[in-house]
């Protein structure tokens, strides 16, 4: 009599760890992912040095343009040194805004090139991809600020406070610039092409830049524009940086910039991360 064949029970299915659940990824692992992705983005810059042309040339071009072309009209002939001290701290706000736009273009191009398809297969926190881009762009922003200050000092800019105050102005500009990156990331995730990102960004950049105290005192503007300028966060940042460079009351403007930066981040960062999860 043959023995009955016994079929062994099928093994219980093993639980598959979710790859997109950031709550299941520890802080150390998250930081490791951010570091690895930041290194990858930095190597991309090394392979394509032309991607640094904006932060290398933009501070030089804008400073020379406004000082020598518009400086005489704004500050009067013979007062260009005084205008440099007024302009350069304000240009820090403008540099931060322009450099921030690049992160939205970059994230859009990564989707077009299929880079995000590879990230989709990796057990990494989705936010680490976005934060790594912000880290690298903050580094690029620091390079732009260093060149801007060097050009300013060469043109006769004076600092009447201390190096710590100058570092405070740089840190405040970096904080606000980093918060703006979440807006451009959200735009980059919402439109189809990098050209569309740039087009939408310009609609934001132009009114904020020229409707502010970056280039000229608001007292020279008509009343309706002066009202817009008073509530423009770039005006608060320019005035705060200017006060930290040449002295004067800065507490109100500093707190306004910090409040704007926190509010922008709190509102747009969750939206950008949620949009990124849906696309990946």
TrEMBL record:
<protein>
    <recommendedName>
        <fullName>Transport permease protein</fullName>
    </recommendedName>
</protein>
<feature type="transmembrane region" description="Helical">
    <location>
        <begin position="254"/>
        <end position="273"/>
    </location>
</feature>
<dbReference type="InterPro" id="IPR047817">
    <property type="entry name" value="ABC2_TM_bact-type"/>
</dbReference>
<feature type="transmembrane region" description="Helical">
    <location>
        <begin position="196"/>
        <end position="215"/>
    </location>
</feature>
<comment type="similarity">
    <text>Belongs to the ABC-2 integral membrane protein family.</text>
</comment>
<keyword id="KW-0813">Transport</keyword>
<dbReference type="InterPro" id="IPR000412">
    <property type="entry name" value="ABC_2_transport"/>
</dbReference>
<keyword id="KW-0812">Transmembrane</keyword>
<feature type="domain" description="ABC transmembrane type-2">
    <location>
        <begin position="50"/>
        <end position="279"/>
    </location>
</feature>
<keyword id="KW-0046">Antibiotic resistance</keyword>
<keyword id="KW-1003">Cell membrane</keyword>
<feature type="transmembrane region" description="Helical">
    <location>
        <begin position="86"/>
        <end position="108"/>
    </location>
</feature>
<dbReference type="InterPro" id="IPR013525">
    <property type="entry name" value="ABC2_TM"/>
</dbReference>
<feature type="transmembrane region" description="Helical">
    <location>
        <begin position="166"/>
        <end position="189"/>
    </location>
</feature>
<feature type="transmembrane region" description="Helical">
    <location>
        <begin position="55"/>
        <end position="74"/>
    </location>
</feature>
<feature type="transmembrane region" description="Helical">
    <location>
        <begin position="129"/>
        <end position="154"/>
    </location>
</feature>
<dbReference type="InterPro" id="IPR051784">
    <property type="entry name" value="Nod_factor_ABC_transporter"/>
</dbReference>
<keyword id="KW-1133">Transmembrane helix</keyword>
<dbReference type="Pfam" id="PF01061">
    <property type="entry name" value="ABC2_membrane"/>
</dbReference>
<keyword id="KW-0472">Membrane</keyword>
């Amino acid at each position: 009599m043959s023995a009955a064949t016994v079929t062994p029970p099928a093994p219980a299915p093993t639980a598959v760890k979710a790859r997109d659940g950031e709550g299941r990824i520890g802080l150390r692992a998250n930081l490791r992912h951010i570091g690895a992705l930041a290194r990858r983005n930095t190597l991309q810059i090394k392979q394509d040095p032309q991607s640094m042309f904006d932060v290398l040339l933009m501070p030089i071009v804008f400073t020379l343009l406004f000082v020598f072309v518009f400086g005489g009209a704004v500050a009067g002939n013979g007062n260009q040194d005084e205008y440099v001290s007024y302009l350069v701290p304000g240009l820090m706000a403008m540099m931060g805004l322009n450099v921030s736009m690049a992160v939205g273009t970059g994230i859009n191009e990564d989707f077009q090139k299929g880079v995000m398809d590879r990230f989709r297969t990796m057990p990494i926190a989705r936010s680490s991809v976005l934060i790594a881009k912000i880290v690298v762009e903050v580094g690029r922003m620091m390079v732009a600020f260093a060149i801007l200050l060097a050009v300013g000092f060469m043109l006769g800019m004076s600092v009447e406070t201390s190096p710590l105050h100058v570092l405070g102005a740089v840190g405040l500009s970096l904080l606000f610039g980093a918060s703006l990156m979440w807006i451009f990331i959200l735009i980059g995730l919402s439109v189809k092409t990098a050209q569309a990102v740039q087009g939408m960004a310009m609609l934001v950049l132009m009114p904020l830049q020229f409707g502010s105290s970056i280039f000229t005192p608001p007292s020279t503007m008509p009343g309706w524009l002066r009202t817009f300028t008073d509530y423009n966060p770039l005006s608060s940042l320019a005035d705060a940086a200017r006060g930290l460079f040449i002295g004067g009351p800065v507490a109100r403007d500093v707190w306004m910039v910090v409040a704007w930066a926190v509010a922008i981040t709190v509102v747009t960062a969750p939206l950008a991360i949620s949009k990124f999860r849906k696309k990946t």
